[in-house]
Amino acid sequence: MEKTTMKLIGKTIAPNGRQRIYFFGFRVASWNAKKQKNARLPDLIAAAIADPLGLGGLELKLWNLGVPRQFHHLFYEMPAGAVCIDCGANAGKFTDAVLHQGGISYAFEPNAALFNLLERKYAGNSRVRLFKAAVGARDGMAMFHLPVGMRADPVAVCEEGTLLSHRQRMDLQPADEVKVMDLAGFLKREFGVFSSEPPVWLIKLDIEGCEFEVVERLVAEQAHRFARHIVVETHERFFADREKRLERLRNTISAAGADNIELGWL
Description:
33% of the residues lie in helices and 26% in strands. α10 links the parallel β11 (227-232) and β12. The chain is globular. Residues 1-6 have low confidence and may be disordered. By secondary structure, it is α/β, with parallel strands linked by helices.
C-alpha cells in the first residue's frame, strides 16, 4: 500500500482528479472524481442541444463552470436584467451563465491575455461591462504573479494568476503590474444609495487568495449590503495558517450578520 505522512485520517487530490483516503498513513481508498463528474457529460450535452436557450443550456454552462449544486438556485432564480459582478472573470464562464439567464455582468480580469480574449468574446454585447483590473481591498497598482516557469503555459494563464507574492507549495514570479479596484468603493460609486432591494443580484469572488481581505473590507464598509448574494472561493489552501484565516473570516461574517455571504464556491 502507498504510504504518506502520518495522520489518523487524511485525504489527497492529485492533479488528475484522483482522490485518495489514508488511515494512519496508509491508503485505504482511491477513486477518480473527474471521471465521476464526466460521466454526466453526454447527458448534459444532449440536453443542451435539445434545449440550448433553456435549462439544458444552463445546466451545461454550470457544469462547465463547476458550480456546486447548492448554488444552482442562484441562477435558476435570477431575474432578467439582474446585475452580477464577476470578480476574477477568467475565460468568462460565470459571465456566460449570467448572460444565459438574461443578466448583466460586470466582469473584472487583470490578466492581459485573458482580458484580450474577453474583449473579443463579448465585443458589441451591451450586457457585459469589462474592467481590466484586479479586485482588491484598496485602489491602486499591484504586481500580478504567475507560477515560476509557467508564464507561457495556457493553464497558468487561465488558472494560476494572483496578486499574492507568496503561496503555499508554489513558487511565484512577477509578471505584470496591474490596476487594482477596491470593490467596496466601486459598489458605492456605481450604485449609490438604495432604499429597498439590493441593486446587485450576485457577486462572485474568485480572486486567487485575495478574498479574505476583500470580504473583510466589504463587511467593514457595509458594502456587502449592495448584493443579494455573494459567493466566495476562499483558496485557503494557499496559506499555512488556513484554519485561522477561515475562522477569522467566518467570525467576521457572523458578527456582521452578513448572511448573504456564502463560502465554498467551487
